[in-house]
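Researcher: Go.
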Amino acid sequence: MRIALIASPFISVPPKKYGGTELFIAQLAEELTRMGIDVVVYANGESTVNAEVRSLYAGDDWPIDGEMYSNLKDLNHTAWAVNDCLHSADVIHLNNAPGLALSRMPGPRWVCTVHHPHLPVLSEFYAGFQNVEFVSISHFQQQQEHLKRVRTIHHGIDLALYRLQTKKAEYLSILGRIAPAKGFHSAIEIAKRSGIPLKIAGEVQPMFREYFEARIKPHIDGKFIEYVGEADLALKNELLGNSMAMLFPIEWDEPFGLVMVEAMATGTPVIAFPGGSVPEIVQDGVSGFVCSGVEDAVARVREVQRFKPGEIRAYAQQHFSVERMVQDYLSLYRETNQEISLCEGGTVRRQAAA
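Model: Structure:
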């Protein structure tokens, strides 16, 4: 069985810093390859994933410059990739919405992981492709998408890449895209009200530069509130691993939130607000606290000493390992592949799903 994994052309696989979807694709591809599955990854030429990689565009192009241009580039890359693998792959696994338009072409089976938050216009678009096996990344997300063929597969990570740190330092951390919905301003308030320093890491995208300049930067003093820039894997291990807790005070319905799992992999509890998938990822009182707001989070910060780092990591290993994730996807691939059978004369017929 040959699996074609199609990433966007904008960020390398795996990502150097920002890029949750690209990290997901890299870890899925590498674990499938390790298991002996034939995998090809369509990504840009800077990708270093340990699998066969094919590229149309040479390098990273992030942040994207202009919606029209970026959409055309993404569509061009995806169309090239589909054309290249249409007759050689058994399953084409898409990770973007525009690529779905190409699934009308006859040939292999199609899988699409939905990485975007719920938007009515996207849901209407998805509904037009009943031959595609959709994957939601949380049960919360699945409940919002009324699709005929959809199942939830939670993300997983390779925990071997994350170092368990049993001794924690006296600071809080927050990591991610610095945007209002991610609640960095609330993290600063939690830190100040609790009297515990905060270290901030993340990308400042052009569209949120004003937010950063007005609501985050004035509080950064390099001591109590510190901004350490974008985080690669090494910095994630240091920042999250040494932190007494990672804050996740979101103000939107998070589809998954991979950074929560990364924190838990280092043995660090997560203090989060309950938007979207959060209650599926953080088990309250086991791997962190799901809080009602800033005041609740301030109170919970004082209780994080009760957690044992080894038990938090064990929770992440049990529920969010790359091995579990890949087994779930492999089951899906095999099911979809079994729906294709040869009829008399050697032509391909698609059978209805059970």
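Model: The first helix runs from residue 20 to 34.
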